[in-house]
Amino acid sequence: MKIFLDTANVAEIKKGLEYGVIDGVTTNPSLIAKEKREFIPLIKEITAIIPGPVSVEVTATAVKEMITQAEAYAAIAANVVIKVPVNLEGLQVVKTLAGRGIKTNVTLIFSVSQALLAAKAGATYVSPFVGRIDDISGDGMALVEDIALIYDNYDMATEIIVASVRHPFHFVQAAKIGGIPNVWIVTSFNTPSDAFSSVSDQISVAPVLSRCGTQTYGSATFSLTFLGRRSRLRTPSARVRGNVNAPVALRR
Q1: Which of 26, 127, 133, 246 has the fewest CB atoms within 10 Å, i.e. the most exposed one?
Q2: How far apart are CA 115 and CA 222, in angstroms?
Q3: What is the average pLDDT across 247-251?
Q4: Burial of 235 by CB count in 10 Å (0-12 exposed, 13-18 middle, 19+ buried)?
């Protein structure tokens, strides 16, 4: 299990670390802009506080400029992961950065094809936006299952970050998919927070899988991130529809 805070607020990160359960941080340009601080000093402070991965997103759009920006960010600290959009330019950037030993998180994934191309380019992570897919009457978690199956078929090492999570059941589904053999799942579960001040009696981190319910806290957010184990997938998992309390039946 891994837990990542989805924030660029240093006070929130320090508060989260007090609970002893934080493994990394994800950021984006909006979260960083919200802090009204100089970019590089802020990222330096975050990476110094958190020993695990810290995602930092490029804002350039041309390949050369994206690579230059990514290398500058990666030079800040060894635990920086570069967020890159999934487009033709982004794939070129991922391929180049992978060749230089720089980890990447390919974001805005909406299809299996995008996830497959990102993995082929050398992405460390891909981030399918399950909530946004559900918002347009799609099935975001079905996409995650399909990506996981294909990655397993070809023994791809790319990890899946389940992003744009809308409710706790997304979190449970992703954790179950992460338990499928030979698939690594990192689930980004965004919950409005001053949650850390209430987590002991509202969520209770340890049994969160069995106590999922809709929780509303404050205006900031944090992410719970779970990591599954890898072995060999024989058949895809059954998909749960309807009763959210029904168990997932897995066949091997």
Answers
A1: 246
A2: 25
A3: 32
A4: exposed
* Average pLDDT of span 50-67: 96
Least confident of 114-118, 137-141, 154-158, 234-238: 234-238
Parallel, antiparallel, or unpaired: how do β-strands 189-193 and 220-224 relate?
A: antiparallel
If you write DSSP's letter for every residue of the chain in order, what string do you get? ---EEE---HHHHHHHHTTT---EEE--HHHHHHTTS-HHHHHHHHHHH-SS-EEEE----SHHHHHHHHHHHHTT-TTEEEEEESSHHHHHHHHHHHHTT--EEEEEE-SHHHHHHHHHHT-SEEEEBHHHHHHTT--HHHHHHHHHHHHHHTT---EEEEBS--SHHHHHHHHHHHTSTT--EEE-EEEEESHHHHHHHHT-STTGGGS-------SEEEEE--B-------SPPPPP-S-TTSPPP---
Q: Residue 81: pLDDT band by 50, 70, 90 thresholds? A: very high
Assess whether pLDDT exceeds 80 at residue 194.
no
The catalytic residues are: 83
| Prediction pTM value | 0.73
pLDDT of 93 higher than 60: yes
Q: Are 103 and 124 in contact (CB under 8 A)?
A: yes
Chain centroid, CA 7 distance in Å: 13
Q: How far apart are alpha carbons 10 and 66 in whole angstroms?
A: 26
